[in-house]
């Protein structure tokens, strides 16, 4: 279920921390899935320097990473995303994805002195693993550091190369708290009975017809609605298309928050009064 997003500039020790966390969680009896940005780049047929010179290639790789993360989020495993993850917008997208999957998430920021990271990069013997100087500098400049005040970066664990990673605190942040509730707008509507949907449609339609009938007399101020005399509404300032739009909105809202059938009419009038104020 949990997602651990590892972020940092090039050569900051992200993969080392990823392997450390993998061993720790496996020792806790958890299934661990590692999704590596470097491996996705290779599978896409690119190299780590060329993709950062081409925004389309970079977007393609980010899309692959996001797809892999969401595909592997299940209630029984831990997903580790090992990559630069330097764009806060991308981290936010992953947060929304894990939230909709009712998963907990945390961010591990592998921090390092920029000059030290540059030296590590230059000392790499394998050319395929080394960033070109201009690419390295550009990535450092473009890096948007995680901020624990942002909900999509929180909880945030900052660690330098010579520091011990607080793995127990990471474990607690993922397994000792409930995941954030999904946004109301992204939840599926609760199942409603056929009778309720029929009543909802018929009652609101009947009120609409009554309002249209009242409007023909050009009333001023609030008037009673025929058939619902105890309910009043100012219909002088609303057009028929506007009423139809409000009815559709109310029906959608009622499907998400199913009211008692006896409350459909008064709640609809109240909704119209509030919307027309």
Largest sheet: 5 strands, parallel
Number of strands: 7
Q: CATH fold name of the largest domain, please?
A: Rossmann fold
For the record, the CATH class of the largest domain is Alpha Beta
Explain what the structure shows.
- The chain is an alpha/beta fold and 277 residues long.
- It folds into 2 domains: 184 residues, 3-Layer(aba) Sandwich (Rossmann fold), CATH 3.40.50.300; 82 residues, no CATH class.
- 47% of the residues lie in helices and 14% in strands.
- The chain has 10 helices and 7 strands.
- The strands form 2 sheets. Strands 2-3-1-4-5 form a 5-stranded parallel beta sheet, with helices on both faces.
- Strand 6 and strand 7 form a beta hairpin.
- Helix 8 packs antiparallel against helix 9 and helix 9 crosses helix 10.
- The chain is elongated.
- About 2% of the residues have low confidence.
């Amino acid at each position: 279920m949990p997602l651990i997003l590892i972020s940092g500039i090039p050569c900051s020790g992200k993969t080392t921390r990823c392997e450390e966390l993998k061993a720790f969680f496996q020792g806790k009896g958890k299934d661990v899935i590692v999704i590596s940005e470097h491996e996705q780049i290779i599978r896409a047929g690119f190299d780590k320097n060329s993709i950062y010179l081409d925004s389309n290639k970079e977007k393609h790789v980010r899309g692959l990473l996001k797809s892999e993360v969401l595909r592997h989020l299940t209630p029984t495993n831990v997903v580790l995303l090992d990559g630069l993850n330097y764009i806060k917008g991308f981290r936010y997208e992953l947060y929304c994805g894990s939230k909709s999957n009712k998963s907990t998430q945390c961010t591990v920021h592998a921090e390092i002195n920029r000059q030290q990271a540059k030296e590590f990069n230059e000392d790499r013997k394998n050319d395929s693993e080394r960033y070109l100087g201009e690419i390295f500098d550009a990535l450092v400049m473009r890096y948007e550091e995680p901020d624990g005040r942002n909900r999509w970066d929180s909880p945030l664990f900052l660690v330098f190369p010579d520091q011990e990673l607080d793995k127990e605190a990471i474990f607690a942040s993922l397994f000792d708290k409930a995941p954030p509730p999904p946004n109301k707008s992204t939840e599926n509507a609760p199942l409603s009975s056929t009778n309720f949907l029929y009543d909802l449609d018929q009652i609101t339609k009947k009120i609409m017809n009554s309002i249209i009938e009242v409007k023909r007399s050009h009333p001023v101020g609030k008037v009673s609605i025929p058939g619902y005399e105890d309910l009043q509404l100012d219909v002088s300032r609303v057009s028929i298309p506007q009423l139809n739009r409000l009815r559709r909105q109310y029906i959608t809202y009622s499907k998400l928050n199913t009211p008692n059938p006896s409350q459909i009419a008064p709640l609809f009038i109240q909704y119209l009064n509030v919307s027309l104020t």
